[in-house]
Structure formats: structure tokens, C-alpha cells
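Support case: user asked for a sample of complex input and structure output to validate their parser. Sending the pair below.
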Amino acid sequence: MTRRPTRLDKKFDLLREKTERGALKAASSNRALNKLASNKLAVLGLAFVTIMILSSVFAPLVTQYDPQKVDLRMMLKPPSADHILGTDKIGRDVFARIIYGGRISILVGLGSALGAALIGVSIGAYTAYKGGWLDSTFLRISEVVMSFPQIILVLMLVTILGQSLMNLIIIFTLTGWGSLYRLTRAQMLSLREEEYVQALRAFGLNTFTICFKHILPNALGPIMVNITLSTAMFILQEAGLSFLGLGVPLNIPTWGNILNVAQDLRILQNYWWVWLPSAMTISLFVLAINFVGDGLRDTTDPTMQG
Amino acid sequence: MSANQKVLSVKDLKTYIYVNNRCNKALDGVSFDAYRGKTLCIVGESGCGKSITASSITQLLPKLSRIESGEIVYHSEKGDIRIDQLERNGQEMRALRGAEISMIFQDPMTALNPVYRIGAQISEGLQYHSKNTLAQLKQISIELLQQMGIPLAEQRVDDYPHQFSGGMRQRAMIAMAMSCKPKILIADEPTTALDVTIQAQIFELIEELKQRNNTAVILITHDMGVVAELADHVAVMYMGNIVEQGTVDDVLRRPAHPYTEALLKSIPILGKGKQQQITPIQGSTPDPYQRPKGCQFTPRCPYATEQCQAFPSFQSISETHDTLCWHSEKVLSNA
Amino acid sequence: MFIYFTRRLLYLIPMLLGISFLIYLGLELTPGDILSYLLPPEAIADMKPEELAAMREALGLNDPFIIRYIYWLGGILQGDFGYSLASGVPISQLVLERVPATLELSVAALLFSTFLGVILGSISALRRGSLLDNSLTIFGMIGVSIPEFIFGLSALVIFALQLEWLPVGKRLMPGYDSYWDHMPHLVMPAMVLGLIMTAGVMRYTRSSMLDSLNKEFIRTARSKGIPEWRINFIHGLRVALIPVVVLIGFRLPMLIGGTVIIEQVFQWPGIGNLFVNAVRGQNYPLVMMISFLSVTAVLFASFLIDLLTALLDPRIKLE
């Protein structure tokens, strides 16, 4: 009849014993930071992201090869001491291409996410605070943009604007601001009703100051999380477009462009080193960012308990 | 025999809650009995452990909590059952819930599932505790709703909770709780979320059902007026202990614990006019994680002495009246 | 209820008008003569310059922009989507040929991901904190971090090239064109697209289920003494499903977008494949029309999801 002790029971016993000894201290001061640091995956992710960013920024120090240099005597050579990840179809060093490719891929991801944030957050914050027709107009526009499948909208704009690195960032920004706009707007709408905002209004501060200086900082947590996750999403999109051959022009090395060769079933099956390292790099980088984003979310949003 | 038939006895019950990696001794040795056809009121301010007491009896405790020691004994017709030793959601516990012991919760707005029809929710328990066809179940639901005084029960039985008003929802909750004619009905602040005008109706209904079915009612409340109106027995709780218990006359007319006394002085009495003196209880409830030593009421107690640093033992005032205070004599003579 | 849906349907009209206007703007702004999109190529080839000019006048190409837009929209409503620049074939015909393939792929992936995601997500929530829950969470995160085409290509290498269990791609092989013959072809693309979608559904089901299991009515249900499975599934999951269905509605654009890449990987002859080829060939009219049709499809599918949500949630009917 008596209950079997479970895993929880052991934990309870420990806590009870500690309480009776008076060994439990009050929670330490910076809860958010502690929580992030105690999330091992987030720390690991942050370390990986930092290493990748540093090594692509200081690419010439990491590898002595030129990612563009064609060496026709060294075509499709497997990994060796000289070329640690081998060479591709026209003899370029795969490792160097991945390291240099990181520059563009991360630039596209982060640049587009920041661009989208700039547009989405400023429009979202201002129009939500002002309300009225301005707000409903932008809400309608965002609905239109967001009901397009993103890749279709991106490709449509690629046909109109043409293929280039700058265009890609612009297109990603134009198609990706919707979610940040929605998020900021929702945050703003709830914060707008807070009492301290009423007080500021009573002080006679102007709308712009109240909106961007006093309300927005309180909404930064979820916005940061969204920027992080958008970066990951744009890196994946760049890879997808490059796979189709419609992303950054193929002569510029990016993680996606390296993968473009994988369309060739012969390469896919027989020369794994040409595509697999790049595939792993993208996946790990995006995974790392997602871990960081999740960690951030847990610290900033108490309602999202994992 | 029929006058004072015990259906439930709780002895030295300790239930602790383990949230945020800390241990809150929510119930620290609670004992009381409930009798057939009688109403036991458990009174106290929020956080004193009233609701935890209620959910300990049905083992509907939050996941991160545990009955540490003590006994909860249900005196069923087939012999005594030690509830505290049953598997939380095991078969034996489930056989008791709803059928023998049922509960009414505080907020009827959230206590009903929004996606199912009222009738289906009322008869759901019955479906498992008896052998009835679906058509019979529906008929029973309609009859129950009629008994609860809901007009057009034949139609309302197919409504969804959002189509019911707060008072009607609480009636439906009572119908649900009474569907299997339980021996014990536990009502956890059943009117707190309702309008004052509805309150009286709900209590009247509970009272009527109690008399008809000879049910033991355990009513959790913070309202002394309700206690005076409905209770046969009263237990006053403070910080996880029952500090005083007895018949309603014992406790309300001859309070023997400083907390009960202070509680009674702090509420205005209707009809006494503006002249009456209301004394608020001084200080505030201590943090459950940093409890005072000895008697929990010491920091707020006008009678406190050195002796109160040691946890008091139960002082018997009369056969029916107990209190947990070293100075009960002084309190009694003061009144 | 009827009023609610009528209103919801009427709401689509301004949305579609706005989108069609943008699309037409795009069509006019892209390089190339709009006449070659409006008329079959052989008709243009036979015409003399003055005839072409007369034609322009007749088709209203010299009218103000807004009038031209109205003509164009009128054409679309009558099923005239214009002509492909590359082949001169009517766009409606090109699209109609491809629709079944894409529909088949996306519906299969949607069903697969919904069932799998809801089942795994609720198990995860019920066993919160267990090894199973943690590994499912990690797998979910890995799932959303791998580019979909890598996932597809890896499946291709393993199951088609190495193990030779499934065909390498395409939808039909010559000579084997009965309906059941192409099922083996469907398995891999549908599974790959479905698995990508599953991660999100699973994650959302988990958190929605945790939320609903914490609700008061769960305690009420438990107080009736009914079995745990009934509490978890009939009460908990049933309520948790409502926001999950709403989320699936929000993710429909992702599903349609996903077919673009997956169809390319598996050479699946659907709309996505047609679209990518049109983009590569700078076939503006075709690109624009497919974009327009894909949004329309998304909007109507969201409408159907709304219907489903209202069926699941009795509270909606009152509004």
C-alpha cells in the first residue's frame, strides 16, 4: 500500500534536510545572468559562435590559402596534411573557403537581422504607441508581407533587383521585418498602459522620448531573442538560396555557395569533403545561435519555462 | 451514533511544498475530524495552509509537494482507509475522488473545461463511478441542474461554460461534486470569486444538500460571517497550524487563542453602526521561509512572553475546545 | 457562426486586392514588354509594328495605370493569367499541370508533421524533465538548425543511393504512371519536408500542453476520480490543441516555401520547381503569377485553419 519513493522524493529529502540545517541561502543578486551562465548549452553555443566569428574575421591568420585560388593540379583531393579538408572541383582549399565564407554568411545573417530589427522595431514601437490609422496601416502591410511564403517573396525580389550581396541583405531585411514588428508592437501595446508611462506623459515629455527612451528599453529582452533567432534563420535562407544558385553570386565564397556543388549527385556520393564540412559548419553555427537564443529567452521571459 | 459519526480524521498532518529549490512547511502538524451531516469551517488568512489542507485530503496537491507524515483516515462503510498512504493518482485514490470525497473550487471561471458541454462535465465522474448509459447520464445531469435551481435545465445542459454566468457555473460545479452523492464535500472558498448577492444562494444550496444527503462538509473560508452562519465546528489556521478549534460557539464566543481574538476584533459587524471599534491585527504575516521560533504568532502577539519561544502544546479548554497557546487562560479571561 | 465565417471570408478581399496590386506593380516595373506577356508569342510574331500599336491601344496599354490594373485583374478573375515568356504557353495551363504534385507533397508533409509533432510534443510534456523529453528537445533543435536541402540530400544519399530502398527523385517514371506507382517517389520528399515542420509543431505542442496541464480544470477533472489518460488527453491535450492548430495556420507559408527547396532537391515536378526555373530564366510574368497564386493559396488555407479552430473552440462561435 505504501508509496514507492520516486526521483522527486530524493530531491525533496535533500531540500528538506538542507532547510532544517538552515543551509539554504537567499537567491543571489543577478538572477538573469546566473541563469544564463548555468545554461550549459547556451554557454557552449556562445563560445562556438564567438570562435567562428573571430576566425572568419581573422581568416588570413587561420589559413594561408586563398579561397579563390584555382589549382587545377589539385582537383578533388581528399583531406591531407596540406589541405586539411581537401580541395574542391577546381582545386580550391575547402577549409579556406569555409573560413572566408563565414565572413559573408555571418555578415548576411547578422546584417539582415539587424536591418530587419531596425525597421521592425522602430516602426513597431512608434506606430503602436501612436495608435490610430498609422498603426492599422502598418499592421495591414505586415499582414500582407507575412502571408507570402518568405522564400517566394525573396526570389520574386531577386528577379526584380538582381543577384548581389548588397541586394540580398536588402531583400532579407525587406521580407523579414514582419516578425520583429509584430513582437515590438505587442510589447509596446502592453507597456503603453503601464502607470509609469502615464506619469511620463503627465510630465509633458514628447512622444518620441517616451517611446524610444523610456518604453523600448523595457521591451529589449524579447527583441534581443528575436534578433538572435532571426540571424540563424537568415543564415539558413542564404544557404537555401545559394543551393538554388540564386543567392550571393556564386564566385563569392559563402557557406551556402560551397554547398551548391552538392546538387551534383556524383560529388554528393563520392567526394564528401567538398560539401559535408560546410554543411556541418552551417548546422553547428545555427544550432549554436539557437542555443544562445533559447538561453536568452529563458532568462528574459519567466513564463517560458523549459 | 447517528449524531456524531466521524467520517474523516486527520492526525498530525505535515505537508511540505518544494518550490524554487526551497522547502516550505505549509502544514506543520494539523489534526481535526469531520462528522456526517456537520459543517467544519477552516478559517485563516491567505497562505495559512487552508487550501493545502483541503488538497491533502484528496491528494490533489501541486506536483512539487509531499505529505511528509501524519495520517488522513477516511472512515468508509467498508472500513478505514489511510488516504495518505495511497498512490497519488492510483486506482484506490481515484475510486475515492468524486465518489466518496468531492471538491468545489474557488474560481468557477477556470475550474470548468472550456471546450466541453456542461452536462458532459457534470456526469463525467458518474460515468466512471457507476454503470449508466449515456442517455441516463444526460438525464441525471439535467436533474442535478434542476436541483441546483438552474432554469431550463434541459437546454442549458448542452451549453458550454462560457455561456454560463459565474454563479451558474459554481452551481454546475456543485452539481458535479454532488453527482455521486459523496460522503464528504470539500468546498475551497466557493464564493470568493462570485458576487456577494450570489454568495448566500450558493451557501444555501450547499446547506440544503448537506442535510438531504447527510454529507460532511469541509468549508474553507476567510470570512468570519460565513463561519458564524454555517459552521458546526471551526478550525482556525495560522502559518500551517490549527491554532484553535472547537464548536462554533466555543471559538466565536470564547476565543482562547490571541490570533482568533484579534481576528474577531478586526472585522466590523453589520448593524452595529459606525461607533464600533475595529482593531486591525498588528504586524504582517511572516515569510514562510523565515519562520519565527516557537509559536508562529509571537511577533504579532500582545500576550507574547519568553515562554512563547518554545512551540506550544495543545491546551484543552473544554471537551470540544482546544487551542495552541501557552496563555489561553489570559486570553479567555480578557474576553 | 455563419456570420463569423462570412466576415472572415470578406476580410480576405481587401488583402487579396492589395496583394494583386503589388504584384501588378511588379509586373509593370520589371523589364520587358508587357505585350509579350499578354498575348501568345505567335500572335505577336505575325504582327506589323502599326498593328502592334493598334493592339496596344485596343488592350488598353496606353490607358492610365489604374485602368490597366483593373483590366488585368478582370482577366485573372476569368482565368486568364497571361503567357509565359519562355515558352509562350498560357500560365494557367503551366500551373494547372503542376498543382497536383505540390498539393500532394505539401498535404502529405502537413499531415505527417502534425501527427508526429503533436504525439511527440504531448509525450514530451507529460514526461517533462525526463531523458526522453530532453533528447526530443535537443533533436528538435538540431532539426531546425540543419538547412532543409542538406537534410534532403543526406536522405537521398543514404536511402536512394546507398541502400537503394527508394527512387532517387522525380514523381513518375515513364511506363509507371498509375497513381500507386508514384507513392515510393513521394515518401522521401514528404518525410523530409514533414520532419522539418515537425520540430516546430512538437515544441509548440509541448509548451501548450504544459500550459493546459497547469490549468485549474485539470484539477477539477482529477477531483472526479477519472483515469489519468482521460485527464491528460481528453482534457489536457484537447485544450492544448487549439493554439497548436492556430500555429499550424501561421506556418502554412513556411510549408509552401519549403516545397520550393524540397522539390528542387528531389526534382519533384511541382509549382516550386516551375518557380525556381522561372526565376533562373528571368521569366517575370510566371514568377509574379506564381507568387500571387501562392499567397492566395496561403490565405485560403489559413481560412480553412480558422474554420478548424472554430470547430475546436466553442468560445469562438459566440463572437
